[in-house]
Structures are given as C-alpha cells and as structure tokens.
Amino acid sequence: MPHLTSTEIAGRIEDLYGAPLADLEAHAQDQPPGMLSALLGMHDDLVLAERSIDLHRDHLARLIHPERQIGRHEVSHLVDGSRRLAEAVAVRDVQAKSAAAVLQSLARVPAPTPPPPVLTPPPPAPPLPAQSTAHSR
Q: Where does residue 109 rank: exposed (0-12), middle (13-18), buried (19+ CB within 10 A)?
C-alpha cells in the first residue's frame, strides 16, 4: 500500500503539470534538467525512503516477535535496525518537507488565451460629390 506522503506529492506534481506521473517521467527524460526533473527526483527519493521505513520496521518486528528470545547477539541487531529506521524516517520527513515547500511555491500557469480578434474599423465612406455653386439652366 503506498504511503500517503508520496501519494500526495505525486498528486500535487500531476496537478501542477496537468499530466499523469508516468507521462511526466517520460517527458522529463527527453528534456534538459529542470524543475520537473528535480521534483520527480525528490518524489523518487521519498518513495525510496518510505520503502526503507517499511523494510526496517518489518525487520524490527521480526526481531522483537513475542515468541523469539532476545539475547546478547540480537541486541546489536535491534540497535542497528532502530538506527536505520530512524534514518529512513528522517530522510522521508526531509524529502516530504522539501518537495511540499517547492510545490507550494509553484503554481500552474493557466493556458494562454488566444488574443481577441482585432477589429478593423470599417473603410471610410466615399466622399460625396462636390456641389457646384453655379446655377444650372
């Protein structure tokens, strides 16, 4: 099950760029590095940190299972697993905070509206024939 944090960040990236994440990743590969590739990299790092949290949490749960004896040898594994879990949580928190801050600073630019049609003034009316002051017979 995906973690809410990476899912939220992915949704905000999709909203910002108006396309699914997979399409954005494909598009970013063909472009020079920029904001999109930076955001996608932050999202990938966040997903990796969340997976690491799951891995270390599950490992610790196996180590402290109620039916398992905790001896001198297991203590070092518990300490190491706890340290690794704490590091993964710290990385996740930093990545989530950084990505959210960058996304908050950006806004989707509305699509440009076509310029209004240029109204040309109607052509001037043809001049009226000049009236002569001479009397006609």
A: exposed
pLDDT in tens, 56-91: 999 999 988 888 888 888 899 999 999 999 999 999
Q: Which amino acid, one-letter code, is at 4?
A: L
Residue 30 CB coordination number (10 Å)? 6
Summarize pLDDT for 33-44 with one digit per residue, the tens. Answer: 899 999 999 999
Q: Which of 65, 17, 68, 74 is nearest to 40 (CA)?
A: 17
Q: Which of 3-12, 24-33, 68-77 has the highest mean pLDDT?
A: 24-33
Residue pair 20/14 in contact by the 8 Å Cβ criterion: yes
Q: How far, in Å, are 20, 25, 103, 106, 129 from residue 6 at the CA level?
A: 14, 15, 13, 18, 80
Pairwise CA distance, residues 5 & 91, whole Å: 13
